[in-house]
C-alpha cells in the first residue's frame, strides 16, 4: 500500500533550533527583554555590552546519563557563521545563546532570568598580552567562553559545607601563588597575624638573584625574548645589564619598544612589591 503524503511528512526531520525574534506585535519579546535589562543593569556585564548576542530556541532538551538537564547554552559564532551573515548584509553575530523552548513556559520568571544571567556570565573578552581586546584581520572583536569558577557535586556540599566548596578555587589559587613565591607566604601570614618578620632570618643579601624572571608576570612575547637571551633569573639579568651598559635592553632581541617598556615596568614593580630583598641587602652591608 502506498504511503500518503501525511505519513511521509511525519517522517521529516524536525527543526529543533530557530531564532528568537526580538520584537513581536511591536513589543520586545520576553527573552530579549530579560537579556537587554541584565546587560544594562548589571555592572558585571559592562565588558560585553557591545557584543552582538543572538538568542535561539532549542527544542527537546533531555537529561543526560548523569541526569543533568540543560536549561540554556552559550557558544561562540564560528568564522562561517560570521562570514555568511556578512555576505547576506546582516549584523555580524559574536555569541549565540540557546534557550529551552519546550520547557520555557514552565519556568518561573526568576528562573528564566537566572538562565540567561548564567549564560551571559560565560561570555568573556578575549584579551591580548597588553590587556586589550583581540581583533581579527577584519577588525572584528574576539570573545571567549569562560569556564565555571565553581564546580561541585551535591555529596561534596553535604560533607564539607557550601562555604568550603565556594572557596575551593580561591584556596587553589592561593596555593599556586605561594608555591611560585614561597617568601610571599611568610610575609602574608605575618601580616594577617599582626606580627613582623625579620627579613634576614630567611633571606640573604643575594637571595633576590635566584628569583625567576618567569614569575614577573611578563607577556608571552617578553618571556620568550628573555628565554631566547638565556636569562632565567634576576641575577642573570643583572649580570647582562652590567655587561651591556646603559643600552642593555636593546641587546635583548625580540623585545621591541613595547616589550622594553613592559619589562622595565615589571622590574620596577618587583622591587616595590618585595621590600624584603632590599632590607636583606641593607642589613648585610
CATH topology of the largest domain: Zincin-like
Strands, total number: 8
The overall pLDDT, averaged over residues, is 80
Number of domains: 3
Multimeric organization: single chain
Distance between the termini: 104 Å
Low-confidence blocks of residues: 190-203, 280-285
Q: Helix content range of the residues, please?
A: 40-55%
What would you say this structure looks like, in words?
By secondary structure, this protein is an alpha+beta fold. The chain folds into 3 domains: 12-146, Zincin-like (2-Layer Sandwich), CATH 3.30.2010; 148-180, no CATH class; 182-284, no CATH class. 44% of the residues lie in helices and 11% in strands. It has helices at residues 5-10, 30-41, 79-87, 109-122, 154-160, 162-166, 168-180, 182-193, 220-228, 234-244, 256-273, 275-284; strands at residues 17-19, 23-24, 27-28, 53-58, 72-76, 95-100, 123-125, 143-145. The strands form 3 sheets. A 4-stranded mixed β-sheet has the order 1-4-6-5, covered by helices on one side. A two-stranded antiparallel sheet has the order 2-3. A hairpin with a 2-residue loop joins strand 2 and strand 3 (27-28). Helix 2 crosses helix 4 (109-122) and helix 7 (168-180) crosses helix 8.
